[in-house]
Amino acid sequence: MRLTTEDLLARVLYRDTDMLVLDKPAGIAVHKGPKGGVTLDEFLPDLTFGNADIPQLAHRLDRETTGCLVLGRHKNALKHLGAMFADGRMSKTYCALVCGAPKEDSGRIDLPLMRRSHDKRSWWMKVDPAGDPSFTRYRVLGRADGLAFVALQPETGRTHQLRVHCAAMGWPIAGDKIYGGDRAMAASRALQLHAVRIVIPTVRDKPPIRVTAPLPSAMTTFVNALDLSAEGLATLPDAL
After folding, report:
1. Is 129 helix (H, G, I), strand (E, B) or coil?
2. Marked catalytic residue, from 62, 87, 119, 145
3. Where in the chain is the domain with CATH 3.30.2350.10?
4. CATH number of the domain located at residue range(s) 90-240 in this protein
């Protein structure tokens, strides 16, 4: 994807003195990696909005994952946001199109995860009893033609957690070329995983900040074509 500063500025979903929330597009890595290419890092100096400090990422999304991405606008804010992500105070909701469907309409996945390789350059993960505890809640929002539209909430923040958990349960995310196999790639050439909402706690008894990213066009096309419902996203609770 060819991204411009103007494109990214138009994708700012929320801004205050401490943070920004961007609607990250697909195909853009947040940091430089072995594959090279344009990264979000290169555009951060253009997102100061008059601040002396350059905003920095408070967490990360995979290259092909779209949606809510939080940045701290100064050092103290970044530290505070990072702590909230680390201890699970952030409520993150994703939506995905999966191949097949969960047997139950909602549930909790409890499958420990670890790296496939001891090579620190490899981010690929696997389910392993010796891995780190990893938990994901899910809710089915619609089913059609062998696919399901699901909401996912990670309770832990392991690398590729949602992708590995869905694949291990027998319903890989459409377009997941690492974990999904032929079935996932036959359903979509692009990963159908979107960080649709983030809920950020505030201080002094103020209500939390809720930021929602609109569904990307590719996912909307799938949802409409299959006559699935995206309406349930607006009414999902902070904890499934």
Report:
1. coil
2. 62
3. 1-87, 90-240
4. 3.30.2350.10
Q: Which residues of 37-57 are buried (b: 16+ CB within 10 A; e: fewer)?
A: eebbeebbeebeeeeeeebbb
**Stated pTM of the model:** 0.93
Radius of gyration of the chain (CA): 18
Question: Which of 90, 38, 37, 25 minimizes the C-alpha distance to 59?
Answer: 90
Which CATH number applies to 1-87? Answer: 3.30.2350.10
Cβ atoms within 10 Å, residue 80 = 14
> pLDDT, tens digit, for every residue of 77-133?
999 999 999 998 999 999 999 999 899 999 999 999 999 876 555 678 999 999 999
Q: Which two tokens stand for residue 116?
A: 């496939």
At 83, give phi and psi (nearest 5°): -65, -40
**90: amino acid identity, one letter:** M
Residues 6+ apart with CB under 8 A from 221: none
155 CB contacts (<8 Å, ≥6 apart)? 88, 135, 136, 137
Residue 82, Cβ density class (10 Å: 0-12 exposed, 13-18 middle, ≥19 buried): middle
Concerning whether 62 is annotated as a catalytic residue, the answer is yes
213-227 confidence digits (pLDDT tens): 999 999 999 999 988
